[in-house]
Known about the structure:
This protein has helices spanning 42-48, 86-100, and strands at 2-3, 9-10, 17-23, 26-31, 35-38, 53-56, 59-61, 66-69, 73-76, 81-83. It is globular, with a radius of gyration of 13 Å. By secondary structure, the chain is an alpha+beta fold. Helices cover 21% and strands 37% of the residues. The strands form three sheets. The protein has a five-stranded antiparallel sheet. The chain has two helices and ten strands. The model has no long low-confidence stretch (mean pLDDT 93).
Amino acid sequence: MIYDREGTMHLVAPMDVILVEAVGKRARICLAYDTFEARASFSEVTAIFPDLMRVHRSYAVNLARIHAVDQASIIMEGDEAVPLPKARRAEVMQRIRALADGELD
């Protein structure tokens, strides 16, 4: 469970998370059905969802919700573009391939 800025509790299933973005000292959580700013920090939220992959200093994504990857970004479900630094591209592609091959759950 995660609390938003107003104190409303959200029960979030890990597979519903599309991405988490650091926004100042808080985290913006983008779900399949909603987006909200959490009361918690980026690192606190990503600790709750250890299956998310940190692809940028400000972004963690659910690999199963990636729609496309180009040279500079990852396009997530809902057409949200996440920056992809060159240094992380090979690792991200390796994890996506492993997921597609059934090596990751």
